[in-house]
Amino acid sequence: MSYARPLVEVHGLSKTFRVHKRAPGVLAALRSVFHRPTESVNAVQDLSFTIGEGERVGFLGPNGAGKTTTLKILAGLLHPTAGQITVAGFLPFRRDPAFLKQITLVMGQKQQLLWDLPPTETYAMNRALYEVPRAQADETIAELVALLEIGDLVNKPTRQLSLGERMKCELVAALLHRPRVLFLDEPTIGLDVSMQAKMRAFIRHYNERFAAAVLLTSHYMDDVTALCPRVIVIDQGRLVYDGDLKALVRRVRPDKRLTLRLSAPIDRRLLDQIAPVVSYEGGQAVLSVPPERLNATVQNALATLSVVDLAVEDPPLEEVMRELFKNAHAGTPAAAAVASTPGAGASATRPLLATDPGSGS
Amino acid sequence: MHILSDARRAVRAYPTLLRVGLSEVVAYRAEFIVWILTTNMPFVMLAIWHAVAADGPVGRFGQKDFVAYYLAGWVIRLLTSTWLVWELSMEIRDGTLSARLLRPLHPLFAFSAQHLAALPMRVLIVTPVVTALVWFAGDRLAIRDPRVLVIFLAAMVGAWLLIFFTMVLLGSLSFFLESAIGVFEVWLALFAVLSGYLVPLELLPGWVGRVARLSPFDSMLSFPLETLIGLRDLGTATRDLCTQWAYIATMAVFGLSVWRRGVRRYVAFGG
């Protein structure tokens, strides 16, 4: 996939925070009045990537990897310590109004809706602040309200809305000015499964309709799998992988998942003879099969078992991530985990090369 | 930076911001009333000084002068005070300032609109006190002279601006300190004494009174108050108006400078 115009360009981005250190206890508290030792925390280190117009990119990493910090820098909330960044042609940290009109940052755990007023009041305020013509704002609100199925909810005080309803109303406020770049930080956090699916459909619709670039973080891997053909993975502030999601899965967990639905219960040892068993319960078995042995294994299963239905899938992304970062926590940098897998273009010492050739970057 | 283009955008956005701000004030009306009740100190001081003046004037102040002074002081304080330091301190600490920083209008314009939107409610509350002021001490009010009236109105706008920028300065300290509220408490104690909020400046001990008149606190309350009730003649009031606006310019420069430096350090906690 190639994208004509990069909307987000990041080169060598680093962000260091100085944090106060203090031991617990009254004595330490008193000592800290006179002497406050600090330490530097490198939240983001030498990060580089680009995102093109219309692209949807998942931004993955364990807690504390630097994802939210990066999003805040890209949105202009934080000043970078080093590196060059442009978003829609602007330097984000200057927070030029023309820049702010082209982006939005949605944080699932923070909201911009006025708490005691109906969301319509926030929309009115944003319309004025973003100088959106009234007709365009009305049209956008009507369209978004219909897509998100929130109807009259926009007229109820925000505090009376459920989390999911609030999140939907929040999205309308965030997209009222039709931004070209969407930074979405856990937009589906706390939502139920059906609400998550609606949000995903909505984000995809917006992205396709306005060719908006989307950079999305989520701990729900279904969000990423459903929305993002490309992922950027960071760990401890460093780039681990940038490229095609499927390629990442193939590298970290090359084996396929063969799911068999059986007509009657069988002895698990029979399954073990065919391929390693990932799970077996309720008449459904999941086997882990190397791609080169897939055909033979399927034929073997059909010949020896009473199979009602079968499916071949990639391993779930959660598992891929777990595997990737398990190595990192065991002392092996996650980048090396990617690099060590067959066909990886990554290098443990130069994580910036950890890109998949097929990516848009 | 973008302050001039922001000002133009603010002018266009202000009607909506004021309307939304007023809706918020109405939504928070209970808290608002409670806050009003906490501003009763001038009435306590009035009761004390009124009793003291029963035996004869204290300096230039007779009983009626104290009535005029404290009622007018309460009204002016209510119309010119802002709670920005609390909001700034809280929003910087918990990261809610982020939403404001992401909007294409300088947050201080949005804050100012939010605060000015509370004025209609405040006017509603002070109306009975203003009526009482005119009833009991109308003859003490100097604003029947249109020149004094103009200076008084300019002084009121100036007092609001001076306090607003002072709150910007104090609130922005939260970018650097764990919380700016402690500093604000110190400021508030100084304000209570040096602005004439508790005691008319001319009744303070000599050197304290002189310090108070030279300080910006005078411009925040005592100047418009004493102009209103005729304790400063036209010449003095004109000179003090210039002083007040010089303080506003200085405080604006300091406040915005600390704000700008602070925003660079902002860590946008949360999320």
Question: Mind explaining what this structure looks like?
Answer:
The complex is a heterodimer of chains A (361) and B (271). With 361 residues, chain A is an alpha/beta fold. Chain A has two domains: 6-247, Rossmann fold, CATH 3.40.50.300; 254-313, YebC, transcriptional regulation domain (Alpha-Beta Plaits, 2-Layer Sandwich), CATH 3.30.70.980. Chain A is built from 13 helices and 13 strands. In chain A, the strands form three sheets. Chain A has a six-stranded mixed β-sheet, with helices on both faces. The model of chain B has no long low-confidence stretch (mean pLDDT 91). Chain B has one domain. Chain B has helices at 3-27, 29-37, 41-52, 63-80, 84-94, 97-101, 107-116, 119-137, 146-172, 181-194, 206-214, 216-228, 234-265. Chain B is globular, with a radius of gyration of 19 Å. In chain B, helix 3 runs antiparallel to helix 4 and helix 5 packs parallel to helix 9 (146-172). By secondary structure, chain B is mostly helical. At the A-B interface, helix 3, strand 5 and helix 4 of A face helix 1 and helix 6 of B.
Task: Give short descriptive properties of this protein.
heterodimer, A: Rossmann fold, Alpha-Beta Plaits, 2 domains, six-stranded mixed β-sheet, four-stranded antiparallel β-sheet, globular, disordered C terminus, B: 271 residues, mainly alpha
Tell me briefly what this model is:
The complex is a heterodimer of chains A (361) and B (271). Chain A has helices spanning 26-34, 67-74, 97-100, 119-129, 134-148, 163-175, 193-210, 221-227, 245-252, 268-274, 294-304, 317-329, 334-339; strands spanning 6-20, 38-52, 56-60, 82-87, 103-107, 181-185, 213-217, 230-235, 238-244, 256-262, 277-281, 284-289, 307-313.
